[in-house]
Amino acid sequence: MKKTAVITGADGGMGSEITKAVAQSGYHVIMVCYTSFKGEERKSRIILDTENEDIEVVQSDLSSMESVVEAVRKIKSKTQSVDLLMNNAGTMCTHYIRTEDGFEHTVAVNYLAPFLLTNGLLPLMHEGSRVVNMVSCTYAIGKIGPNFFTKGREGTFIRIPIYSNTKLALWLFTRELSERVKDRGITVNAADPGIVSTNIIRMDMWFDPLTDVLFRPFIRTPRQGADTAIHLLLDEKCDGVTGAMFASCKQRKLKDKYLNHPQMKELWEQTEKKLEKFFSF
Known about the structure:
The chain is of the alpha/beta class. Helix content is about 45%, strand content about 15%.
């Protein structure tokens, strides 16, 4: 049976590169995209580049938990097995947006959607399945406080700290999930792409031109940013490796506080309670 890969944010810069690499490896690919139009457009290009026509698009607004649940149902109707799951989609809101479910928008897309989607697809995974979550070096300045789910952070809205908080949460999810599914032979790892030139970087605040000048020499192309995720998804060297964070295709040495974070299990339990009514796949 042909292996299946599910990739979120597959219509974005890095998502398209990851999709292309996985398609070239012969997988049946399910692209989870924000809009069907853009997804189908990217799909057509990838088919031309890879000559792999076994690619499908599932539309999902990852800020809506009902939409995530519907995506899980659609994926289950298209495959009986998930061999690769790439939680790549991400956003960084420039102002406060409360989702229809009462969550802060960046938190919903970057953390809650991967949590819900992954748990929904776990029954289709098996020994050898791989889950890869796209984190960021900003996890190191993340803090998860009482208002994380509804406001993203304590105090006023500031986008970079909120983004950082979601990436720390996604890393803690990676660690906790890796322990929970280890006995099933499923591996769960995180990829840090570095600073990548994608639509997530919005040059619309007064300090951004200066930031652009300072950081532009270090900014990677979407393909360069995708390399670490592709390595974790496809490289045989990653067989059996789990609960790790990789950057530039190498395992990152982390401090113990990030390997055994005191909020790891607590955050999982809190998240389950917040999403309890959506666990109806």
